[in-house]
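Support reply, case 0932

Customer input (verbatim):
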Amino acid sequence: MAAACDNTTAQIYLAGTEEERGRGRIRRINLTAAFAIAFRAGLFLSSFVYVPAAIHYLGPERYGLWVAMTSVVTLLAFADCGIGFSLMNEVADALGRGNGNSARRSISSTFFVLAAIGVAGVLVFGVAYPWVPWQSILRTRTTADTTEAARAIALIAAAFLLTLPFSTVQRVQSARQEGYRTQAWELGGVLLSVAGLLAAVRMRAGLTVLATVFVAGPLLAMVANWIAACWIRCAMEWPAWRFFDARLARKIVRDGGYFLILQLSAAGAFSIDSFVVLHYYGQAEFGTYSIVVKLFQIAPALIAVWSAPLWPAFAEAIARGDYVWVRRIAVRATLVSVTGCTLVSCGVAVFARPLIQLWTGADVRPSPWLLNGMVVYSAILSGCSVIGALLNGSGFIREQAFVALVSASVGVLLKVALCKYWDLSGAIWATNLSYLMIIIPALLSIVPRCLRERAVA
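Our regenerated output:
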């Protein structure tokens, strides 16, 4: 019964002509993007509720400590070692080939691998906990604050790691091009977090309870999503040890390692800007730089919302052999993304000063070089996000990981040199140069080879 359910699910993506399947993919992509925007809007609006409540209850200093504690989740986002992305590719490929049994082996294998990682992570953290210099890291003033914050971080880390295997539902839903379901559950998790925080404040709970309750909302929503998918909708099979495939697990872990390199390279290449600008120009100039960066993040973020669901759609279409659709959508999406992002970014550059003043109340005067650099970066990033989705869905991960590492290394050297001998706009222009010299030429070489090899296969 379970296997039949999964195979029936897989057949949905094989029904109809290539044109009909293409229309179905576009419909699911747009639906996922719409839900993603709704989720981000909910996240933004909820901050207007919980931030004032937390500051009023905790005070500015303890609120800063609370933010530091809850930010642990951001660091733990890499805990799955990229394995979730590898699972998404495997399931999308299986659905494209109509092989539900292969999808179930991938899901079960990944679930148990992530469970092992979660348990191992908790044990390692438990052993290391007494030796961590919490007071130095958290910059707390009293022993009581240190103990309270350390316990909260321990609870958050343990909860996150132990629920790690349940994150498979999010990757499977993405692979099925049903990311809108994930976004809906995540929105529910945000609402649960805000409700839990307000209830804790009303009960005058301690800092540990506030942090744990706030982080627990998304984790509980994810587990509920997993239960609903496995038990109620039969959209994902219950993981079973008899479907664990050691060979497949090794492949998923290996590909996950390449995805992890991609993630870390992208995060490190951009986050290093903060340290370089702060080192050479101080806090005031760094404040200007960070405000401008945030202003120009809006357009690429909107593009990313739409390009992210392209990844599993490309993977399924390539497995099915719908190469005409893949080429047409890849070219169209790239042109639309680059053009739209460039136009929006140019408008932001023209009105940057009044926008910043309206937003922050500060009279910030970014240089033309900085503004132009951000326009170029936004255009490059939007185009590369679509091409990256194509290559990710094609399984060309190792090549991307190598290119990303080289580009990140060159980018760091350029950032240091340009910031030292030019001005702070050198940080973003170094990123642009690393893309133009390394990433874009590499992508122009890899993409045609990718399409040829997949067409032959």
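We compared this against your earlier run and they match. Two observations from our side: The chain has a mean pLDDT of 86. The CA atoms of residues 349 and 371 lie 6 Å apart. Please reopen the case if you see a mismatch on your end.
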